[in-house]
Design a protein that fits this description.
CATH superfamily: 2,3-Dihydroxybiphenyl 1,2-Dioxygenase, domain 1
Strand content: 35-45%
CATH architecture: Roll
Number of strands: 8
Oligomer: single chain
CATH topology: 2,3-Dihydroxybiphenyl 1,2-Dioxygenase, domain 1
Helix content: 10-25%
Shape: globular
Distance between the termini: 17 Å
Order of helices and strands: EHEEEHEHEEE
CATH class: Alpha Beta
Number of helices: 3
Number of domains: 1
Strand order of the largest sheet: 2-3-4-1-5-8-7-6
Structural class: alpha+beta
């Protein structure tokens, strides 16, 4: 069902400051910044040197889901994402198994990827992102 780990999402208050830390202090290589207006978030992907990336997420407003996360939990790990080959089939299988989904259908994420989230109620408090590359 899963092709492997894709990225770990980290909620941050200031994307530019966070990029500086991950780039200049930790040595990760920035891969690009994307504004996802419909999701009310600005994201940056950084290479870890392997296949798994880090995604930094900054809210674009106080009504952003990431802003609500920051308000209740503070900065830190927001989600982890696993790559799937057929996101529609995986969503159908998880739904059949009684898994609580945030998204019944995939939506467009950064870099043209199809994404959908599994509710933390079904994963012991961890927000899980399913991701299918274009």
């Amino acid at each position: 069902m899963f092709a492997g780990m894709d990225h770990v999402g980290v909620a941050v208050k200031n994307l530019d400051e966070a990029i500086s830390v991950y780039r200049d202090v930790l040595g990760f290589k920035p891969l690009g910044v994307h504004v996802l207006t419909e999701r009310k978030v600005r994201v940056a992907f950084l290479s870890t040197g392997g296949e798994t990336q880090i995604e930094l997420l900054e809210p674009l407003g106080s009504d952003s889901p990431v802003a609500k996360f920051l308000e209740s939990r503070g900065e830190g790990i927001h989600h982890f994402a696993v790559e799937v080959d057929d996101i529609e089939a995986v969503l159908a299988e998880l739904k059949r198994k009684g898994v609580v989904l945030v998204d019944d259908k995939p939506r467009e994420g950064a870099e043209g990827k199809k994404i959908a989230f599994v509710h933390p109620k079904s994963t012991h408090g961890v927000l899980l992102e399913l991701m299918e590359k274009p």
